[in-house]
Amino acid sequence: MLLLLIGSGTVGRDAIIERFLNSHPDWRFVSVDDQEEVFLELPEEEQDDPEKGIVAVDTREFFVTTILQCTQKLQEQNLHIIAACDDLPEHLFTLMRSTLGNNLLIIHIGGVHSVEKGKEELYDHFIDTKTTSVKDAQIQLSKLIQTP
Prior knowledge:
Elements: E1 2-6, H1 10-23, E2 27-31, E3 37-41, E4 54-58, H2 59-75, E5 80-85, H3 90-100, E6 104-109, E7 125-127, H4 134-146
Parallel strand pairs: 1-5, 1-6, 2-5, 6-7
Antiparallel strand pairs: 3-4
Helix pairs in contact: 1-4, 2-3
């Protein structure tokens, strides 16, 4: 299973993750790099046009693809992944859902009020960190992963 926590404010999110991991020894943590893109320079022999020798790569797509592969491999050993990031483009939500199906829970940290209108359906659950303690957030996550 992959439990993905999305939302800004890494201090609260990190505290929730730490508490969750302390209670669940069969879970591993992976952070999705929130840097949206890196620029790679192509070798000169691969460049059609010297001015177009730089390619932008979305690092989040790389990390999500890697996490999906890791999740599938770890499931064979009855291990699971909890991952965290600030935000993801919508096509990566679709990729994750089509790859993992019911083995994916996407939780928005920060509550429904902080999600762009019309995008609430991308998330399975919301944890409003303004009204929920770290302990209560961890309890909510623990209940969610036990629900069939």
